[in-house]
Every structure is written in C-alpha cells, then in structure tokens.
Amino acid sequence: MIRAYTFLLRPTARQQVALGEMLRDHCSLYNGALQERRDAYRHASKTSVRYGDQSAQLKDIRAFDPERQGRWSFSSQQATLRRLDKAFQAFFRRVKAGQTPGYPRFKGVGHFDTVTFPKDGDGCRWDSTPHDRQTRVRLQGVGHVRVHQHRPVQGHVKTISVKREGNRWYVVLACRDVPAQELPPTGAVAGIDMGVAHFLTTSDGEHVGNPRFLRAMADELTGAQRHLATFPKRTRQRTKAHRAAARKVAKLHGKIRRQRADFHHKTARTLVRDYDVIAHERLGTAGMTKSPAPKPDPDRPGGFLPNGAVAKAGLNRSILDAGWAQFLGILANKAESAGRLVIPVDARNTSRTCPECGHVAKENRVTQAKFECTVCGFAANADHVGATNVLLRAGLVLCAAA
C-alpha cells in the first residue's frame, strides 16, 4: 500500500526564513521555465520546449546564480520542472478532449507553497527512529528541522514534500510498502446516501449531521474578506496592514479546511470499523456544482429570463462545504487499509425509486425529507430510501461480479 503522512514542522526563526527563500526560488524557477515555453511557442515558429531540454539547463542556471538557485537540491528543482511539465500535459490533454484548456499560469510567491524531493536521501533525509521524540528532517540549504511526529511512520519513505499553509509548515511523506492493518469482520453491510440536510444517512436509518463549517464561520470570514477588499489595488502587497488582512483570511480558510478534514476522517473511521461492505453513490461533484446556463429572453434582445442561479449558488456552496469528494476518497483509503470493501454505484434515481415495488417517479419524492410511493404507498425518510437503494444496487454489482 501507498500512504501519505503529514506532520507539522517546528522550524526556528532562521529556518523559517530559509524555508520561505526555498519556496521563492523554486517559484522563480517555475515561472522562468514557463516564460521560456511561452516565448519558444510564440516567437520561434511554435517550437515546443520539453522537460528534458529545461532539465539540461539546470547545471548552467545553478552556476550562474549560486546564491538563489545553486544552494537548493538539484532533484527538488527537477521536480519543480516536472510539475510544470505535468501542467502542460494536462493542458494539451484538455485541448484534445475539447474541454476548457486552462493554459498554465504564472505562480505568485503566495500561491507557490510546495517543494518536493523525489527521493529520501537526495537533498533531504528523514531522520526518525521508533518512539523518537526528537524527530527531524534534514533539508539542503535549511538544516535539520524539528518535526512534530504524532504517529509512527510505516513502510519505506519514497518522496518528501515541504508545504506551507498560512504561517504553518508541514512535511508530507509518501511511503510505499505500508502494511495493511485489517480489522476483524463484523458481518455488517451498509449503503450510505450523501446529502446536504444530513451529511450522510446509512441504510440502517442512522443520520450523521452536517456540521456546515463554512456556514458556521461565514460572518467572521465575510468580515475579514470585506476588510481585505477595502485596500486599493495600488497598495496591495505593499503595506503591512494588507498582508495582515490577507493572513487573517487565509487563517480562517485553513481552520475550516482542517475542521472539515478532521470530521471526514472520524466519520470514515466509524463506518470502516462498523461495516465490512460500504456502498455509496458515484457522485460527480464537479458537474453537480456547475452554474445554470443563462436563458435568453426572446422578447427582449440582450435580456435574460430567471434561471435560478441564486438558489443554485446556495446549493453549490452547501455541496462544496460538505466536501463529498474528499470524504469518499478518505473512506476508500481507510477501507483499503482495514481490508474492507467499498462499492460505488450509479446515483441516478436512488431517492426516487421505491425499495418495495421498484416504481421510479419524480413524484415519489414529496419533499426534501419525505418519500411516498405513488403506486404502493410505501412511505419513509427520503435519505433512508436513497441509502437502501444504494445497498440494493451494490448487491446487484456483487452478484454480477460473482
């Protein structure tokens, strides 16, 4: 198995300055390589520059600028160039597929927050022993940085990444050959229905409340964002007050993100502990949160008819606040580690299908919370019905696989 471990770094004041300089110089390398690709395509008869060409120039770049580029790990700079190359590969793949391309853009210093070391021992070294309270990670150009290791690392450390989130620094270890820790079987199976009113409902009828972390901090976040917007553009990033306002907004978003991730981990762990098989809807969150298309008014040239964009925006915000995609990813990872089975099924009409007679109709869903079949009269909670249908479809998948 492959698993990632994230630990908080405890750098000294001098090491924190060096970490910021490392991010700044890697960001400069990324932007310079992007500019070279743009110039080559625009001014050199659409000549393409590839990763191998730019990686071969690193030796000269480091010799020309030893103070900013020569002090950092060669392999980490190669990883930064690979990051740019992957962005271009994704761009051309979207162009070929007819999707919105999204040409790679330059990174601001505040938005370039990760440096990756492809191999432990090459520019970085993870110094850890079992039950060691003084764990450190050695980074070239920075030194031995103390790590708050809150749990043991298993497997073989493959790559090491240093990441900045607000004023905090983290080290992310990607480990391979991590042994699975299978849980004893329980003999229980469940289907889960994801929602907004309730975060999820199981086929046993249990509801898990939706904490709505973004809504809970909406007033405080709105005030911080309004204060940040009061600074005129000509003074942005130039005054101490503006930087403090930007840090406050980032701090609030970081708190919401950590609260959501903690809730997802705890909820997934409970499901994996209680059930051997977990079925869930296969959700396309990106498609579900699209804005509705505008409706031109035939009677008023240049005018538009109401399309429910305001209501849809509120629903989109609630879906994104719940973080279904992140939760399902965490659930799949925990289930794999525990030896459990997770089955995604088709989400269409799960809350409109009667589990008793199989009748499918929009009218079966009377309200957000109430289901009543128009044929047989079966009535139940709509989310519970959805979870039951998810479990039934998972049974069909298992039968087909057998």
**Main beta sheet:** 7 strands, antiparallel
Protein structure class: alpha+beta
Helical residues, percent: 40-55%
Q: Which regions contain 5 or more consecutive residues with pLDDT less than 50? A: none
Our count of domains comes out at 2
Topology:
Layout: E1 3-10, H1 13-43, H2 51-56, H3 58-64, H4 74-97, E2 114-117, E3 124-127, E4 136-139, E5 143-148, E6 156-165, E7 168-176, E8 189-194, E9 198-202, E10 207-209, H5 213-216, H6 218-229, H7 240-274, E11 277-282, H8 285-288, E12 295-296, E13 304-305, H9 309-322, H10 324-338, E14 341-346, E15 370-372, E16 379-381, H11 382-401
Parallel strand pairs: 8-11, 11-14
Antiparallel strand pairs: 1-5, 1-7, 2-6, 3-4, 4-5, 6-7, 8-9, 9-10, 12-13, 15-16
Helix pairs in contact: 1-4, 6-7, 7-10
Structural overview:
- By secondary structure, this protein is of the alpha+beta class.
- It has two domains: 174 residues, no CATH class; 213 residues, no CATH class.
- It contains eleven helices and 16 strands.
- Helix 7 packs across helix 10.
- The model has no long low-confidence stretch (mean pLDDT 91).
Keywords:
single chain, alpha+beta, 2 domains, 402 residues, 16 strands, 11 helices
